[in-house]
Specification:
Elements (H helix, E strand, L loop, with lengths): L23 H6 L3 E5 L7 H11 L4 E3 L14 H5 L2 E7 L11 H7 L3 E5 L14 E2 L6 H13 L1 H9 L10
Helix pairs in contact: 5-6
Protein backbone atom coordinates (compact mmCIF):
# COMPACT_ATOMS: atom_id res chain seq x y z
CA UNK A 1 0.00 0.00 0.00
CA UNK A 2 1.27 3.47 -0.90
CA UNK A 3 0.38 6.52 1.10
CA UNK A 4 0.75 10.04 -0.14
CA UNK A 5 0.90 13.15 2.01
CA UNK A 6 -1.04 16.14 0.71
CA UNK A 7 -0.49 19.16 2.98
CA UNK A 8 -3.28 21.75 3.18
CA UNK A 9 -1.03 24.50 1.79
CA UNK A 10 -0.79 22.64 -1.56
CA UNK A 11 -4.43 23.49 -2.30
CA UNK A 12 -3.42 27.16 -2.38
CA UNK A 13 -0.58 26.60 -4.87
CA UNK A 14 -2.12 26.54 -8.33
CA UNK A 15 0.95 25.51 -10.33
CA UNK A 16 4.46 24.12 -9.86
CA UNK A 17 6.63 26.82 -8.41
CA UNK A 18 10.23 27.87 -8.87
CA UNK A 19 11.81 30.34 -6.47
CA UNK A 20 11.70 33.87 -7.93
CA UNK A 21 14.80 36.02 -8.13
CA UNK A 22 14.33 38.79 -5.60
CA UNK A 23 15.84 42.21 -5.12
CA UNK A 24 15.78 42.67 -1.33
CA UNK A 25 16.60 46.38 -1.60
CA UNK A 26 13.58 46.98 -3.84
CA UNK A 27 11.38 44.88 -1.55
CA UNK A 28 12.52 46.82 1.52
CA UNK A 29 11.77 50.15 -0.19
CA UNK A 30 8.16 49.02 -0.67
CA UNK A 31 7.54 48.18 3.00
CA UNK A 32 5.35 50.55 5.04
CA UNK A 33 5.95 49.04 8.44
CA UNK A 34 7.04 46.27 10.75
CA UNK A 35 4.42 43.50 10.73
CA UNK A 36 0.89 42.55 9.86
CA UNK A 37 -1.58 39.97 11.07
CA UNK A 38 -4.95 39.01 9.61
CA UNK A 39 -7.02 37.11 12.15
CA UNK A 40 -10.72 36.62 12.72
CA UNK A 41 -10.53 33.77 15.27
CA UNK A 42 -9.80 35.24 18.74
CA UNK A 43 -8.89 31.90 20.36
CA UNK A 44 -5.21 31.55 19.38
CA UNK A 45 -3.52 31.88 22.78
CA UNK A 46 0.06 31.47 21.50
CA UNK A 47 -0.51 33.86 18.60
CA UNK A 48 -2.20 36.44 20.82
CA UNK A 49 0.62 36.28 23.37
CA UNK A 50 3.33 36.71 20.71
CA UNK A 51 1.45 39.59 19.06
CA UNK A 52 1.20 41.34 22.43
CA UNK A 53 4.92 40.81 23.09
CA UNK A 54 5.90 42.15 19.67
CA UNK A 55 3.57 45.12 20.05
CA UNK A 56 5.59 46.20 23.09
CA UNK A 57 8.42 46.89 20.63
CA UNK A 58 6.77 47.74 17.29
CA UNK A 59 3.28 48.47 15.94
CA UNK A 60 1.47 45.58 14.23
CA UNK A 61 -1.19 46.27 11.61
CA UNK A 62 -4.16 44.00 12.28
CA UNK A 63 -6.36 43.56 9.21
CA UNK A 64 -8.76 40.81 10.29
CA UNK A 65 -12.00 41.01 12.27
CA UNK A 66 -10.16 40.29 15.54
CA UNK A 67 -8.31 43.29 17.04
CA UNK A 68 -8.64 45.21 13.79
CA UNK A 69 -6.75 48.52 13.85
CA UNK A 70 -6.76 49.47 10.16
CA UNK A 71 -10.37 50.63 9.73
CA UNK A 72 -12.02 47.31 8.98
CA UNK A 73 -11.22 43.87 7.60
CA UNK A 74 -8.92 43.99 4.57
CA UNK A 75 -10.33 43.04 1.20
CA UNK A 76 -7.05 41.96 -0.46
CA UNK A 77 -5.02 40.00 2.10
CA UNK A 78 -1.91 39.56 -0.05
CA UNK A 79 -1.64 43.27 -0.90
CA UNK A 80 -2.14 44.15 2.75
CA UNK A 81 0.44 41.75 4.21
CA UNK A 82 2.93 42.60 1.46
CA UNK A 83 3.18 46.16 2.77
CA UNK A 84 4.99 44.94 5.90
CA UNK A 85 8.36 43.33 6.54
CA UNK A 86 6.81 40.47 8.51
CA UNK A 87 3.51 38.65 8.56
CA UNK A 88 2.36 36.78 11.65
CA UNK A 89 1.33 33.53 9.97
CA UNK A 90 0.26 31.44 12.93
CA UNK A 91 -1.94 28.39 12.54
CA UNK A 92 -4.98 28.01 14.79
CA UNK A 93 -3.30 25.04 16.46
CA UNK A 94 0.03 23.23 16.51
CA UNK A 95 -0.03 19.72 15.16
CA UNK A 96 2.47 17.70 13.11
CA UNK A 97 1.58 17.98 9.43
CA UNK A 98 -0.95 20.80 9.90
CA UNK A 99 0.41 23.55 7.64
CA UNK A 100 -2.18 25.68 5.88
CA UNK A 101 -1.82 28.38 3.24
CA UNK A 102 -0.63 31.01 5.75
CA UNK A 103 3.12 30.52 5.16
CA UNK A 104 2.70 30.39 1.39
CA UNK A 105 0.60 33.56 1.35
CA UNK A 106 3.22 35.47 3.33
CA UNK A 107 5.98 34.23 1.02
CA UNK A 108 3.93 35.18 -2.05
CA UNK A 109 3.60 38.71 -0.67
CA UNK A 110 7.41 39.11 -0.35
CA UNK A 111 7.31 39.28 3.42
CA UNK A 112 8.95 37.12 6.07
CA UNK A 113 6.46 34.79 7.76
CA UNK A 114 6.56 34.63 11.54
CA UNK A 115 5.27 31.11 12.00
CA UNK A 116 3.84 28.84 14.68
CA UNK A 117 1.90 25.67 13.99
CA UNK A 118 3.32 22.54 12.42
CA UNK A 119 6.52 21.67 14.33
CA UNK A 120 7.70 19.93 11.14
CA UNK A 121 7.10 22.89 8.83
CA UNK A 122 10.75 22.50 7.75
CA UNK A 123 9.91 19.27 5.93
CA UNK A 124 8.37 21.41 3.21
CA UNK A 125 9.40 25.01 3.80
CA UNK A 126 12.92 26.38 4.15
CA UNK A 127 13.23 27.47 7.78
CA UNK A 128 15.93 29.96 6.77
CA UNK A 129 13.20 31.81 4.77
CA UNK A 130 10.69 31.91 7.64
CA UNK A 131 10.98 32.62 11.35
CA UNK A 132 9.56 29.52 12.96
CA UNK A 133 8.70 29.61 16.64
CA UNK A 134 9.62 25.92 16.78
CA UNK A 135 13.29 26.70 16.04
CA UNK A 136 13.85 28.68 19.24
CA UNK A 137 14.49 27.56 22.80
CA UNK A 138 12.39 30.36 24.31
CA UNK A 139 9.82 32.97 23.38
CA UNK A 140 12.31 35.67 24.31
CA UNK A 141 14.88 34.29 21.85
CA UNK A 142 12.16 34.13 19.17
CA UNK A 143 11.14 37.77 19.77
CA UNK A 144 14.75 38.97 19.89
CA UNK A 145 15.53 37.27 16.56
CA UNK A 146 12.56 38.99 14.88
CA UNK A 147 13.62 42.36 16.29
CA UNK A 148 17.19 41.76 15.11
CA UNK A 149 15.99 41.03 11.57
CA UNK A 150 13.90 44.20 11.66
CA UNK A 151 16.89 46.32 12.71
CA UNK A 152 19.49 44.72 10.42
CA UNK A 153 18.65 45.18 6.74
CA UNK A 154 21.49 42.87 5.66
CA UNK A 155 20.20 40.04 7.86
CA UNK A 156 16.62 40.64 6.68
CA UNK A 157 17.77 40.69 3.04
CA UNK A 158 19.60 37.39 3.44
CA UNK A 159 16.33 35.82 4.64
CA UNK A 160 14.49 37.19 1.58
CA UNK A 161 17.10 35.63 -0.75
CA UNK A 162 16.51 32.13 0.61
CA UNK A 163 14.39 29.70 -1.45
CA UNK A 164 10.88 29.12 -0.16
CA UNK A 165 11.03 25.36 -0.02
CA UNK A 166 13.40 23.11 1.92
CA UNK A 167 14.83 21.54 -1.25
CA UNK A 168 14.75 24.75 -3.28
CA UNK A 169 11.95 23.28 -5.43
CA UNK A 170 8.26 22.65 -4.94
CA UNK A 171 7.98 19.43 -2.92
Amino acid sequence: THHYRLPLWVAWLDQPFEHPQVDPSAILREKDGFASVVVSNPSGDTRNRIVQQLERHRPIASGGRFRNNVGGPVVDKLSFIGRYKFNIAFENSSSPGYTTEKVLQALSADTVPIYWGDPFVGHDFNTRRIVSYHDFSSEDAFIQHILHLDEDDDAYSSVLREPWFATGRTP
